[in-house]
Amino acid sequence: MTERALPDLSAALAHFVADATVDEAARSRSLERSLRQQASEGASFIGVLLDLAERGRPIVLSTGGGRRHRGVVRTVAMDFCIIRTDTGTDQLVSYRALGTIRPLPLEAETVGDRPATLDVDLTDALAYLSDDRPRVRIGLIGEPDPQIGELRTVGRDVITLRMDGDPPPTAYVQVALIAELTIAR
Predict the structure, then answer these.
(1) What b/e sequence results for 23-42 when a residue is b if at least 16 CB atoms lie within 10 Å of its CB, and e otherwise?
(2) Tens of pLDDT along 56-86?
(3) 32: helix, coil or strand?
(4) Which residues pair with residue 135 across a beta bridge?
(5) Is the previous residue joined to 167 through a cis bond, with omega within 30 degrees of 0?
(6) Rounded to an integer, what distance in angstroms lies between the CA atom of residue 12 and that of residue 19?
(7) How many CA atoms lie within 13 A of 92 on its CB side?
(8) Could you give the CA distance from residue 33 to residue 22 in angstroms, rounded to a whole number?
(9) Which of 24, 59, 112, 149 is the S-S candidate for 43 at Cβ 3.0 to 4.6 Å?
(10) Rounded Cα gap, residues 109 and 33, in angstroms
């Protein structure tokens, strides 16, 4: 009769734990990858801007017209954002005109999977500004030269500007074509 060797329980248990650890690590990586993919699939420009605003770090915004604005995101609204530029001015930029958002090199990647929290659109913001009748500088989508004048009134889809001149001409600007706006000094 041959004697059977007893199994080495310690070795068997160590093998079992090692297999379980490898399986758990694979499940964990798979879950993490799935969560990252879900977050990135829910990403939006607004969400990216919100993430960057929370960081308070400088970024560069480029509009479709080739203009660039470097500064820190201050406000993220429904269809526009406001950045404080390096020169200290607040620049309102419409999302319709926004081409790229570039954080500084070596910044952590941003997911941007959140909706806007400020329930204000561009027309509402312009109406609020018009109460003080400020001088504004407006860049329009597809127009190389800005429109500069006193913001007089805001309608549903049009603003009225009193332009410089003698006598001062009036211009009516379609809100949908506003790329950017700065309070002129």
Answers:
(1) eeeeeeeeeeeeeeeeeeee
(2) 989 999 987 788 999 999 999 999 999 999 8
(3) helix
(4) 150
(5) yes
(6) 11
(7) 23
(8) 16
(9) 112
(10) 15
Q: Is the distance from CB of 101 to CB of 69 less than 8 angstroms?
A: no
Torsions phi, psi for 163 (to 5 deg): -80, 165
Q: Print burial letters for 106-144: b (CB count within 10 Å at least 16), e (below 16).
A: eeeebebbbebeeeeebbebbbebbeeeeebbbbbbeee
Using alpha carbons only, how large is the chain's radius of gyration in Å?
27
How far apart (Å, rounded) are the C-alpha atoms in residues 50 and 78? 11
The type of residue at 78 is M
Residues 109-162: tens digit of each pLDDT: 887 877 767 888 999 999 999 999 999 999 999 888 899 999 999 999 999 999
The pTM for the full model equals: 0.74
Q: Can you give 79-139 as a three-state secondary structure string?
A: CEEEEEECCCCEEEEECCCEEEEEECCCCCCCCCCCCCCCCCCHHHHHHHHHCCCCEEEEE
Tokens of residue 141, six digits? 């989508």
